[in-house]
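User: Can you help me understand a structure? I only have the sequence.
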Amino acid sequence: MKELGYYNGRIGELSEMTVPMNDRACWFGDGVYDAEMVRNRRLFALDEHVDRFFRSAAALRIVMPVTKEELKKLLNELVQKTESGNLFAYYQVTRGGGPRNHVFPEGPGHLWVTLTPREVNEGKTPVDAVTAEDTRFFHCDIKTINLIPSVMASQKAKEAGCHECILYRPGGRITECSHSNIHILKDGVLRTAPTDHLILPGIARARMIGICGELQIPVDETPFSITDLMQADEVIATSSSNLCVRIKTVDGQAVGMKAPELYEAIRSAVLAQYYRETDIPAAR
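Assistant: Let's start by predicting it. Here is the structure, written out as C-alpha cells:
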C-alpha cells in the first residue's frame, strides 16, 4: 500500500478507510496522538515517541487498548506493508465510542494509525515565520488531538508564505510553534523553553539538547521573550519531520543567521544521528 490506514484491527488504503461517527474523536476531539519519521522501514526514536504517547493517554485517563510492546510490534508490522520505506508514521488513541455524552465511556480506547510517504527535511534551507498569540489551553504538554488553535496558526503561516507560526503568551513569552518547538542561539548558548505545561516536550527537542551536550554547547532551559527571539544569533525550529530548521525572518523582519558555523555543527550532528539510527543494518 502507498498510504496505509489502520483502525482497531482493520487495515486498508488510507483513502478507503472509514471510522464510526460515534468515535469520540468526532464528538469531542477526545484523544491523543504521536508521530515520527520512518526511513528504510526503521521507525526513528520509536521508544521515546511511544513513551510520550502513553504518558499523554495516562494524563487524560484514556485506557490504552495495547501495551507499549504490542504497539511497537504493530507499527513495525504495518511499515512492512507499505510501498515506500520512507514514511511519516502517525498514531492516535481516542477514548472509545458510543452515544454523544460528555462523561467517559467504559472500556479501552480506539487505536488509529496512518503511514504516508515523506522525506525528512534536512534543514539546509532557511525558512520564514510569523508570530501569533498563543490561545491554546494550559495543557500544551499533552499531545491532544484538540488542535484548532494550532490549525489557525498554521493557516496564518501558510497565507503569509511562511514555514511556521511562532506562538507567544501575554507578556511576550515565547512558547512554541504551531507544530514545532522553537529555540534560539545567543552568545554560543542554546536557549529553549522549559518543559512545563505551556509546551510539548518534543522528541526532536530532546535529541537536539543531547547533541548540544555532545558538542559541549551550553543549554539554558528557561523562558525567553519575543525581544530575545528577534535579537538572537540563530532561531531554530525542531519537530519530528523537521529535525533542525533555521528561521531567517519573523513577521517580515530579518532574524538570526549570525552563527552559521554553530548552526551547521548542530544541524549536521542531528541529521547524522537520524541517518545512523535509520540505516539498513549491514549484512553479516
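Now, to help you interpret it: The two ends are 30 Å apart (CA to CA). The longest helix spans residues 260-278. Let me know which part you'd like to focus on.
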